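Q: What does the predicted 3D structure of CRISPR-associated exonuclease Cas4 look like?
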Amino acid sequence: MTYNEQEFLQLSGLQHFSFCRRQWALIHIEQQWQENLRTVEGRLLHGRAHDEQQRERGGDVLILRGLSVFSGQLGLSGKCDVVEFHLSQEGIPLQGEEGLWLPFPVEYKRGEPKKDDADRLQLCAQAICLEEMLCCKIAQGALFYGEIKRRVPVAFDAALRDEVVRLSDEMYALYRRGHTPKARPTKGCNACSLKELCLPGLAKHRSAATYLTRYIQEDEP
Ligand code: SF4
């Protein structure tokens, strides 16, 4: 399927979507956003990485920051923190540069590597965008984690690519329906920036009235 440019969704939403469909819908359908320490820290880290229009050259590596990318296949658009172009016979020509250059996306994240695939999926979506825009094949990239201060390599294998396509299609289906899924509290809710808005505690009870009644009773001496 090819999506219309007018309806492209935010590429960065893919990580929210894979973490929690409801969180994604609150942010991208209902336009809710609540800052917490994690989102502020994440933005500061991205601010440094997204130093737009910068182009650096270090030996056989050319570095571009804040590069805008999109994909009609995924229907997503966004920005890459950093795209390195490595001098390689398997690369592509770049305007103003001699030789062939192989793109290598690098995404900056606060914290440490996660157990789930959210970060890998976002990076892989960036790679698919770059492949579509530059007519090339990108086999790998890397995630840089602020807490461990090093890169973790990511291979863009068939399984990861299929999951990116499947999730972006599902994201579109929800977006077109304008549907926000119900809260399904998990351990991940503790780290969720929308915890207070989402009120996962309410989902454990039958209704808001039941929740408030219990809350008042528990508060009584
Ligand atoms: S609090 Fe939990 S259920 Fe609600 S949006 Fe966040 S992760 Fe999803």
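A (community wiki): The structure tokens above were generated from the sequence. The first helix runs from residue 13 to 19. Residues 182-221 form one domain.
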